[in-house]
Amino acid sequence: MGNFGFPIAITVYLFIRFERKLDKLEAVIMELSEVIKSFNYKKGG
Predict the structure, then answer these.
(1) Residue 3 — φ and ψ, nearest 5°?
(2) In terms of domain of life, where is this protein from (predicted)?
(3) If you ran DSSP here, which 8-state letter would residue 45 be given?
């Protein structure tokens, strides 16, 4: 277990960071979708 402790810790850390970034990316994509919808609505499309 001593040989695997550090790689496991790094992997968990990176997964947590990656998940946070995915959550932020999802929020930005949803916001962009709303902006595009409103832009199309204003143009009459």
Answers:
(1) -75, -20
(2) Bacteria
(3) -
pTM: 0.62
pLDDT tens across the length of the chain (45 residues): 678 899 999 999 999 999 999 999 999 999 999 999 998 888 775
For residue 5, the one-letter residue type is G
Concatenated DSSP letters of 1-34: -TTTHHHHHHHHHHHHHHHHHHHHHHHHHHHHHH
Q: What is the pLDDT of residue 25?
A: 97
DSSP symbol at 44: T
